[in-house]
Amino acid sequence: MKFKITLLVCLIAFSNCKHSEKKSQPETIDPVQVSMDRNADSLLLDSKINSVSIGIYKNGKKYTSHYGELDKGSKNKPTDKTIYEVASVSKTFTGILVANAVLERKLNLEDDIRKYLKEDFENFQYNDMPIRIKHLLTHTSEMKKFLPESINELFTDFNEDLPFKVYEIQKEYNKNDFFSDLHKIKLDTIPGIRYGYSNVDTEIMAQILETVYDKSFNVILKDYFQVNANMLNTQIDLPKNKEQYLANGYGMTGKLVPHEVVLYGADGGVKTTMPDLVNYMEFQLDNTNPTSVESHRTLYENGHRKMAYYLPIKKNEEYGIYYNMHGGGFGSQNWFFILPKYDLGISVITNQSDLDTADKLMRTVKGLINDLK
Question: Does the global pTM surpass 0.85?
Fold first, then answer.
């Protein structure tokens, strides 16, 4: 009997000891999450930035984290359902669609763009050298940065009233006005030689895609990325039931600013969520995907500048060949990075926009890269 009691006591003691050992073992810490938390905390120390969302794709794993408040004092933390305007990062989506059209033989990079436009544009050439598809894709078409011309003039004085002035012009501007203004453009050099960043060339590209697919650009974009990248919340035109998730945007003095009015949206009108952007990273990093590979092909090179399909190509000793794009709207800014050497994608977004916001976000991106590469 004494032996049984002694054995029972020993078993209980052993069990308690094992349980104690299990409890004392530290929980596994995910270095990616630690890096996101630390770098987000540093960014939010800036009094102008109230919120930030970060997405990471690393070695097959996907991460999203959200911090702060979308609207100061409202305690409305961004979530995976929050929809952001990604501004010029939209151009990279357009580039993917064009790469796919090229592979489907709907387009040829050497085509004269007038082949796909319903009006005659005698002005879309210089010394009998026409603007070609590849010139639109590489910002070497000699197009204006904005249309109408009055918007270019406004950008010579960047101030807190600029978003409202541009909005008033854009809301009255339609596709007929756009094509009328295109007839007024005069080239002063051969297309394909000189780089000049342009929203206009991207919007023309959207019209060309609409012509070859006989669908609206919004439908082309939404359908393609839903099917090929599992991006179920990416579009130009938000349905009514999604509008509640669109993040408000704040300008350089903290004033609520209007959302951008778009014609096609190819230049800066894409709206999406952080989980969708992480899926987009996976798509971009898939070197077995013919469309992704084609979209990274060099189409223009001049000195240190290299361009693929609306996508700048960069290279340095530390990162190898990588791709990045900045999106800057009046009420949001973001950086999107693809680093194949490290199987790493990064997106950092805030719903605040000032002249130095891009630099602040870049420091955050570099902090993430240094931690995770």
Answer: yes
